[in-house]
Amino acid sequence: MKIRDMVFVALFTAIMAALGFVPPIFLSFTPVPITLQTLGVMLSGSILGARLGGLSQLVFLLLVAAGAPILSGGRGGLSVLVGPSAGFIFSYTIAAFIIGWGIMKFRKPTFAKILTVNIIGGIILVYCVGIPVQALVMKIKLIQAAKLGLVYIPGDIVKAVLASLLTLSIRRRLPRRLLPYSIEK
């Protein structure tokens, strides 16, 4: 692995940790908080591509497992990885990889294409993993957990739009030699 790639992985791991400093919003009816960290997942996949985006989230997950309090609200450690949020957290690595893979398939990504990939990988995939685990841990029916998840969708769509806008802006302004993969301008 090139030093540039290691720097990108470390940078996006740090961005995820920084997004964890934004206090979570806890709702009275669900133990899964609203956080900004899915924005970091979308950005890492969109900007770094599949391999490096997924790797940045894997490093983040390993730091959380080691006890680093870098999840929103200063959470970390193995107990978080067996709680109601576990499925969402575990999906970060897969989501970043899928987002990066999807965007890398486009010769010339547009806002609409990037947004679509962010919604599929950063929202739908995360929910498909997170909601069943939440239902299992909370010992509730899957449909009930899915209904609880509806409250997160508007905020996640805003995060997907923001990630898509930032991705286009960053990728168009940085010199190609600095980017992990190229797109047409």
UniProtKB/TrEMBL annotation:
Pfam families: BioY (PF02632). The keyword NADP does not apply. It is a multi-pass membrane protein. The chain crosses the membrane at residues 7-26, 32-50, 57-74, 80-103, 115-137, 149-170. It comes from the Bacteria. GO terms for molecular function: biotin transmembrane transporter activity. The keyword Transmembrane applies. It is found in: Cell membrane. Keywords: Cell membrane, Membrane, Transmembrane, Transmembrane helix, Transport. GO terms for cellular component: plasma membrane. Gene3D superfamilies: 1.10.1760.20. Belongs to the BioY family. This is Biotin transporter. It comes from Heyndrickxia shackletonii.
